[in-house]
Amino acid sequence: MSIGTLLRRYGTLIGFALILAYFWINLPDTFMTARNWLNITQQLSMLMVVAAGMTIVMVMGDFDLSVGSAASLSGIVAGVLFAAGYPTWIAVGVALLGGLVGGAVNGVLVSFIGILPFVATLAMLTILSGAAFVLSGGKTISGASIPAEFAQFARGGIPLGEIGGVAVMLPNLTIVAACVVFAVWVLLEQTTFGRRLYAIGGNIEAAYLSGVAVRRLKLIAFALTGLSAAAAGLMYASRVASANPTQGSGLMLNAIAAVFLGMTMSEQGVPRILATVIGVLILGVLDNGLTQMSVDSYIRQILVGAIILLAVAASSFSKRLRR
Amino acid sequence: MSFLSLDNVQKAYAGVPALRRVSLTIEAGEIHALMGENGAGKSTLIKILAGVVAPDAADIRIDGKPVSIGSPHEAHRLGFRFIHQEFNVVPALSVAENIFMGRRYPTRAGVLVDWRTLNATARDALERLGITHIDPRRKMAQLSPGDQMLVRISSAFLSEPDAPARLYVMDEPTAALTRDESERLFRVLREIRSHGGSVLYVSHRLDEVMALCDRATVMRDGETIDTGRMADITHDDLVALMIGRKVADAYPPPATRRPGGTALGVRDLSAGDLRPVSFSLAEGEILGIAGLSGSGQRELVRALFGDLPMRGGSISLAGKPYRPFSPADAWQAGVAYVPRERRSEGLMLSRPIFENVTLAQLSRQSFGGSFLTPRAEQRFAAGLGADVRLRSTGPRQLAGELSGGNQQKVVFAKALSGNPRLLLLDEPTRGVDVGAKFDIYTIIRDMTEKGMAVILVSSDLPELIGMCDRIAVMREGAITEIVAAAGLREDDLLNRCYGRAPLAA
Q1: A204 close to B (CB below 8 A)
Q2: Do B386 and B429 lie in a common domain?
Q3: Is the CB of residue B370 less than 8 Å away from at least one CB of chain A?
Q4: Residues of A in Cβ contact (< 8 Å) with B414
Q5: Looking at residue B200, which CATH number applies to its domain?
Q6: Average pLDDT over chain B, rounded to whole?
Q7: How many domains is chain B partitioned into structurally?
Q8: Interatomic CA distance for residues B368 and B380, integer angstroms
Q9: In this predicted structure, which of A217-221, A302-306, B16-20, B264-268 has the lowest mean pLDDT?
Q10: How confident is residue B504, by pLDDT bands cut at 50, 70 and 90?
Q11: CA dist., res. B102 & res. A87, Å (int)
């Protein structure tokens, strides 16, 4: 294997290893510890869920800009229902169902009406965001109206024992994210559904002429992305024990960035769920390490953006060398 | 001294040689044919001439002086003009803008585009081809595929005083042209020759090449095999040189099996621009569809495949009513389709061969209709690949890495994956080399032996006559007649396509 091929396939992974090594050296006592890593997985669990859902539509060559506001809205829907006294399971169920329906609307706009995903989901972003403000009256829903069991969920986990006299546990949010990743992995890599999504991404016209029900599959894929966004919104709300109409807004760009980072690792430049997981980990680790090193959050943004550009540029450059 | 000479041209991709040792000389004032099967290295050689691909080694001389072609811009400056098979147009721009693609627009005051001169110059380029029916100001998207091809060709004839054209490289220029349009192009090429210009001409249509070209260079497996005068060589010798062996017949012998019961019955089917058509097709029979381009052939096939909604009429398949609403319905009913545009409609180039082959039958090739069984899929695809004589490194190779002929075999493997009752073929050998063509004909024959009914749409008249039992002639969206193929002469069939009375024998 030539150096070019090596760089193309593993460049992003090598970069990730370098980032890990850097933090390990500069934060020798705190970075490479079980506690910190469990903390990282919890911090990035919401992003992981959204990015997993985003991978489903990006496999087809589409994307969904509305996931952030869908996440915010689902938290608000649950919060409003909590405040109105509905039981937790109903509030959670309605919020998830809302995400599924919102995603399905995206799917109808894109596949049956034929609006470009960029335009359709951008409009949806605005609509869902507005709806979140209307429902909440622009205020954060918190305090007594959030049931204890809902708020406790994000703080709980499976006890793993003690390290240095302190109890450690596998956080519930991490478990949820792992389950979602596993489900998406099965769906995309092991089922005919996933294969057909990759076929659509490979050549939509050929897929259609080969009998793939393109429109129906697109609708389902967008609905699943919406569902994952709603799930992430609920996870967020549980973690901060409150719902705010803007709390999901950072998720969309990071999710797309994570999928792009993952795409740099695949031979054909197609999104793969496990590659997306690495992409999320890179973003999560950067955030965690830079925070620990007390790097200013604005500088952090610049660094993260530069690293994404570097990875994608290196990948497209090495692809061009192959000509 | 030759106008252009290439010597010892070598190029390898990732260690795999595409050109081993290639030599080519082109004289001023000749039309030179470059012949060879797909994968022989013609495209690579042309890309080197165009400055798109850098050779590993090459001695290129113009009028005896060494030159290097580092970029498309330099190729243009040297006077090279190219008509690529897959050269793209920009549908949203006007005809004139497409003709001027990549060239400097005429300007006024140095900055403003001089639209009047632009359009007039484009009109001149079109008129060189005798084209007066295309307005240079029209949007490219409004033109038929044939007219778009004419516009692309015209762009090579744009007069440019700063870099006068000396060599025209034409790669399959007539693939989308009618016979009249092709004839006009040939007239222009002969005129160029008479003025001392040169043409390097690539086409799989041997008759065309033999009639037009002065000399031919044959390539095989990345080497130039022979160069000779066209007058000294026969059709069969040329084919033998290209594929490296003798071929007895261009078409496999007709089926021994008599056509069986009715496979397909079509009554008063109308859809799109298709006027009511009726015909029936027996099991094991091949029905050809002939006609000038745009006479309704595509609509007929698309309606039978569920891609074009039926407006009226009825279809029966194996005795049962058949009314497809989507390609999925058609596959379900046992109808398979090989589309015209292999790359844009037939294949997912970035996916492995086996994923392409099993896509139409994925539910059957999976566990419980939902879970993938990639190993079984690969075995299945490898089996079908062997049936269609696919040459690949294995079912996991990417479809995009195959030559045109082998890509088409992948499309065939997909079409055959569900043992269809009815196979719809739309120009199945377009852009496919001689060797792969014969393989494809053999596959079609083998299938009819097993009772499959075939509809073959083709603009290649010898192919229709050589392969079909009967031929339906279409004109202006209707079937005007259905004739037996045996004993039919090419000129006779052509006259029927034009709607002229058959010549008195």
Answers
A1: no
A2: no
A3: yes
A4: 210
A5: 3.40.50.300
A6: 88
A7: 3
A8: 17
A9: B16-20
A10: very low
A11: 67
* B344 touching A (Cβ < 8 Å): yes
Look at residue A157 and tell me if it is in a domain. yes
* Tokens encoding B192: 């160029």
Band of residue A323 on the pLDDT scale cut at 50, 70, 90: very low
Whole-angstrom distance, CA of residue B438 vs CA of residue B428: 12
CB contact under 8 A, B359 and A323: no
The reported pLDDT for the residue numbered B30 is: 94
Cα B261 to Cα B263: distance, rounded to the nearest angstrom: 6
Looking up tokens 């029927």 gives: B496
Whether A317 is covered by a domain: the verdict is no
Distance of CA A127 to the CA centre of its chain: 21
How many CB pairs below 8 Å do chains A and B form together?
77
The answer to whether the complex's ipTM is over 0.85 is yes
Range of the domain at B291: 259-334+420-500
Domain that holds residue A195: 41-248
Looking at the complex, report in whole angstroms how far the Cα of residue B488 sits from the nearest Cα belonging to chain A.
Answer: 34
Cross-chain residue pair A268–B398, CB shorter than 8 Å = yes
pLDDT reading at B322 higher than 60 = yes
**Is B347 part of the contact surface with chain A (CB cutoff 8 Å)?**
yes
pLDDT digits (tens, 9 = 90+) for B96-124: 998 888 788 888 888 888 999 999 999 98
Do B330 and B394 lie in one domain? The reply is no
HSE-CB of B501 using CA atoms within 13 angstroms: 3
Q: Are residues A64 and A225 in contact, defined by beta-carbon separation less than 8 angstroms?
A: yes
Give a yes or no: residue B103 inside a domain: yes
Q: Same structural domain for residues B67 and B116? A: yes
Question: B205-229 pLDDT, tens per residue?
Answer: 888 889 999 999 999 888 898 888 9
Which of B304, B305, B359 to probe the A interface (max A CBs under 10 A)?
A: B359
Amino acid identity at B320: K
Q: In the predicted model, what is the mean pLDDT of residues A112-126?
A: 95
Which residue from B348, B363, B366 is facing A199, i.e. has the nearest CB? B348
Count of structural domains, chain A: 1
Contacts of A320 in chain B (CB under 8 A): none
